[in-house]
Design a protein that fits this description.
Order of helices and strands: EEHHHHHHH
CATH class of the largest domain: Mainly Alpha
Low-confidence stretches: 179-195
CATH topology of the largest domain: Serine Threonine Protein Phosphatase 5, Tetratricopeptide repeat
Number of domains: 2
Distance between the termini: 29 Å
Strand content: 5-15%
CATH superfamily of the largest domain: Tetratricopeptide repeat domain
Amino acid sequence: MTEYLPWDKSWQKQVLYLPWLQPEIPGMENSPVLPAYPIFMDSLKRGLHGYDFFTAVASAMVFLLGHEPDAAINPMYCAWLRVFNAELASQLFYEGTEMTTRFNLSQAIWMLQASLLLEPDSYETNYNLALAFNHLATKLTREEKTQEADECYEQARQYFYNASQLKEAGFRRSEKKTGESVLRADEGYDTGIHREW
């Protein structure tokens, strides 16, 4: 069964691929070598350079991670993005969660999927992605799109299950250390990061 996602393939026309080059910005000396850099056409037209160029590349990578979570190139994108911005998974989590509360479900889902690829063991991201898919399934049910709704409910069930497994494992780990479970705070969240999406 093909999993339903709330967008068509037209988004692919927004992204171009440029030959790889080593970023000449501080901290990126050991970044992974990529076969090509994705970038939004609009960013390319603006003639960005240096850090601004690589910020636009990072935005395009995140967009691709969220829209094609099963793409073979994703582990390389994730490795590059972790070097470029170690806080990116958290930033995407908070933005995706906010989109869910606003019922902007397509944006919420791709942001949370990208966050989950960057930090696969996040209980919170699995849980919020499950909620987003559950909301989407409810919406599709009301629209009488039964097959799509069933696929979304199935994805929600899987993410709820993943979250429950991570929560249980995390509780056991933290209980051994401190005797109580501690939820992660939203430290270091940068609301001013450049976004292309």
